[in-house]
Amino acid sequence: MTSPITFSKYHALGNDYIVLTPDKFGQKLTAELIRLVCHRHYGVGSDGILYGPFDDPHCDFGLRIYNPDGSEAEKSGNGLRIFARYLHDRGLIGDRRPVNIATAGGAVEARIEQDGRIVTVAMGQVSFDSRKIPVAGPVREVINEIIEVKGQTLEYCAATIGNPHCVILRPEVSADEARRWGPLIEADPRFPNRTNVQFMQILDRSNIAIEIWERGAGYTLASGSSSSAAAAVAHRLSLCDREITVHMPGGRIEIAISPEFGISMTGGVTRVATGTIDPEALAELKRVAEK
Fold this sequence. Notes:
The protein is 21% helix and 40% strand. By secondary structure, the protein is α+β, with helices and mostly antiparallel strands. The chain has an 18-stranded mixed sheet that branches. A hairpin with a 4-residue loop joins strand 7 and strand 8 (118-125).
């Protein structure tokens, strides 16, 4: 690793991503490099990396999304909003013009508003089908099932919107619960691809609060796909209507749910920085990783 790495950094309600572009990158993007760049103390620090844009035969742009542990994520709602803002900042798309983005979890449509500060993404359709999520066991909708965590019995629903989610209904939610139980549920063997975890509190028919443990990233201030999955579960359980505001420590996301459980997600994006990572830092990061 001898060349500087040019990057852009954004956050969506405190969920931060680094954007690396193939046309400016000039070296192989490895799991080790992803972990080093995302490191909170020795790197730039982020909840993941957005790698794109690249050509896609079916969409306007292609995108790959990586977790800070080096694994690849199928989809990220906040990441997609950030990526759309990045495309806008580069002059590749304009306000209010829909743009199609290909991800490993399926194609989405994004629309920029307010000069990129607000982005709406059509996230796709939520499914509760155990085969699609996936969840081990017989074929079924995974609704109101039981999971045991450290002697605690919790009720959960599972869903996918291109990536897996486990939504746990609680009378109240807290960061402490998410940090304590999240990593155990993420790695539970019933989830063969691991899972994102949301602890959800119903506030009223139009509002929910969630705390999030994100697969491959850990405790997270906000998540677009988590908001989408949790809102869909709240509506599927007849606890909320079709338009839901999701409250998270990092801020709020607006979710609209179609009769077929198609999800439209709207939320803010903030540009943080652009710059380069120096080869000296990369060499030091490599030594830290090898210890």
